[in-house]
Design goal:
Elements lengths: L6 E4 L3 H12 L4 E5 L12 E2 L1 H9 L3 H6 L6 E5 L5 E5 L17 E2 L2 H14 L4 E3 L1 E9 L2 E9 L5 E8 L1 E4 L6 H6 L3 E19 L5 E7 L3 E7 L5 E7 L11 H12 L5 E18 L3 E2 L2 E3 L5 E2 L7 H20 L9 H26 L15 H5 L19 E2 L32 E3 L19 E6 L13 H5 L3 E7 L13 E5 L3 H5 L8 E5 L5 E5 L2 H13 L3
Helix pairs in contact: 1-4, 1-7, 7-8
Length: 558
């Protein structure tokens, strides 16, 4: 019997890596195995949405991600070769606001992204075990027993048995875990709707734009610059693509020339060439007993809109803090049932939105004749509205979310991808705020509210009025002592910064952005409990409601 982790993670893509890092930061021992013998080197999904960037910031890795990313570029629609017909924006950014730290998408090669996450995992004493495959597993009352097969030096194979409390399948749409659980993968595959992707080096083309040629209702070819230079990602799509797509550099060059008419742009060193076919599905359940599905193992999607990989990582963030509380003995295992309850509506909406965008690219009617404006339609097909930034994703319907303010608990207009009302409610994303002053650690300096959040614990924000006393805050200390939360007292001015419980943080809301962002008005006392995944778990004016929230989290029973 090998080393016994609390959680065995199968699959080392972004889903598994984010889950591993989140659990390690919470002190949960893990193993993460990957049947590939080496990391995947392809660009693959490149869009990191603002909501995901916020969560990566909570993990402490976002600055390293930005170092290997580019901000979204304008899109250049070409005629022949380097001829530019039109320059457009392809994405709608969030409005500038102190409540949104990252208003735009970051573009990053998935290979580089995963490399950053692995580095941080290794700093915490763990590492991805490559060339290790899950062969079978079984569950019992107190854990999961998994059989692994690996390869050692000289290609000799070995087998081992691992016992763990929980197992998470992040091994993709064709992975072993979901199939072994016997869960149907509901949806459809459209063999005729294909896309060619590859990583290439490009000579003769600037890196200032995302470049497109051709037309989606015939054949389109796109080249997206990524770090490190001279890397570009190839995306080719359309009904007039050849029946057999190229599998080498020379073939991709010929396809590019046939669509672009270019004679002076050269593609070289093509790698990770892949033919994607539309496979839009969702598992009938996201868990069976002690085994969970996350990411592509639970849902397969169109790449249109850059939603799938981000949704996968947010699966991991949602599951991680719940697994951490349960494995540390701070919550009942019943809490894990809320993973599926919260994520299924979000995933279903993601599939609906990405499929709509997919249909724009793949199911547009063909023109009877090719008119002069045909190529100019690409920017409309590629345009991505603000909704896809995922800043509106919420769990207002969740059984563990507590909205305790009078008149604010209406869930009739729930929308998993956006807030139907402008009023902030429990279950919503917790807004950022800046400038704030930390009364203890940053004299003269400013911080953001999000910089005080962590994936390791809840954060209780206490907004005080002039008439509140320390007695109003004293009941909060039991959640700190119990390892569930940290407290931040948000003051309107520096004068009251000393009124706070022991071991809490005093924040001064210099310009009132925190009060405005959290709809705190007048002189009433307000408490906001922010979960480790950056969601408002509870919003109340009564400190006793915080006890109700944590009681529900710790002892939840569906």
């Amino acid at each position: 019997m090998a080393y016994k982790p609390a959680v065995l993670i199968v699959g080392a893509g972004p889903t598994g890596l984010v889950l591993a890092l989140s659990l390690l930061k919470s002190g949960v021992p893990i193993r993460i195995v990957e049947k590939l013998r080496a990391p995947h080197g392809g660009a693959r999904g490149t869009a990191i949405q603002p909501r995901t960037l916020e969560l990566l910031a909570f993990l402490g890795v976002v600055h390293d991600i930005f170092a290997v990313s580019t901000l979204p570029l304008l899109m250049a629609t070409h005629g022949t070769g380097q001829e530019v017909l039109k320059i457009t924006r392809w994405e709608q950014e969030a409005q500038p606001s102190p409540h949104i730290p990252y208003p735009r998408v970051a573009s990053c090669s998935q290979a580089e992204f995963e490399k950053v996450l692995r580095k941080h995992i290794e700093k915490l004493g763990a590492k991805v075990e490559y060339g290790v495959e899950l062969t079978k597993f079984e569950q019992h009352a107190s854990g999961v027993v998994a059989n692994l097969r690996g390869s050692s030096t000289g290609d000799a194979t070995y087998e081992e048995t691992v016992e763990c409390a929980y197992m998470v399948g992040g091994d993709g749409a064709k992975g072993h875990v979901r199939k072994s659980l016997g869960l149907p993968f509901l949806g459809e595959t459209k063999e005729a709707e294909r896309m060619l992707t590859a990583s290439v080096d490009v000579d003769g083309l600037d890196r200032e734009y995302w470049h497109t040629w051709g037309a989606f209702n015939r054949a389109a070819f796109a080249l997206k610059p990524l770090k490190p230079a001279p890397l570009f990602q190839v995306q080719a799509v359309g009904p007039d693509l050849p029946a057999t797509l190229p599998t080498d550099t020379e073939g991709i060059q010929r396809l590019f020339v046939s669509i672009s008419g270019s004679q002076n742009i050269t593609l070289s060193n093509a790698t990770w060439i892949s033919e994607w076919r539309a496979n839009i599905r969702m598992a009938s359940a996201f868990s069976v007993g002690r085994v969970f599905l996350a990411g592509d193992s639970a849902h397969s999607h169109s790449p249109a809109g850059g939603q799938g990989g981000n949704t996968a990582m947010q699966d991991a963030f949602n599951l991680a803090w719940k697994l951490a509380l349960v494995t540390r003995g701070l919550a009942s295992p019943a809490l894990l049932k809320t993973y599926e309850a919260e994520r299924v509506p979000v995933v279903a909406e993601m599939l609906s939105l990405s499929t709509q965008l997919h249909s724009l690219a793949f199911n547009r009617p063909r023109a009877s004749t090719l008119d002069a404006g045909e190529e100019l339609r690409n920017d409309k097909v590629m345009f991505r509205p603000r909704q896809l930034l995922q800043l509106g994703i919420n769990y207002r319907w969740s059984p563990i979310v507590l909205e305790a303010r009078a008149g604010e608990d209406d869930t009739s207009a729930n929308n998993p991808y956006g807030q139907e009302s402008s009023k902030l409610r429990a279950g919503d994303r917790a807004p950022d705020a800046t400038p704030l002053v930390d009364a203890d650690n940053t004299p003269g300096g400013v911080i953001t509210l999000h910089s005080t959040f962590s994936t390791e614990h809840h954060t209780i924000l206490a907004f005080l009025s002039a008439t509140d006393t320390l007695a109003h805050l004293k009941p909060l200390t039991e959640y700190v002592d119990g390892g569930l939360a940290r407290i931040s007292v948000v003051h309107k001015s520096v004068l009251g910064r000393e009124m706070r419980p022991k071991d809490s943080r005093a924040l001064v809301d210099v310009e009132g952005t925190a009060h405005a962002g959290y709809d705190v008005h007048g002189d009433g006392l307000s408490f906001v409990v922010v979960r480790p995944d950056g969601i408002i778990g509870a919003y109340t004016h009564d400190v006793a409601d915080i006890g109700r929230y944590f009681a529900a989290v710790r002892g939840f029973a569906a």
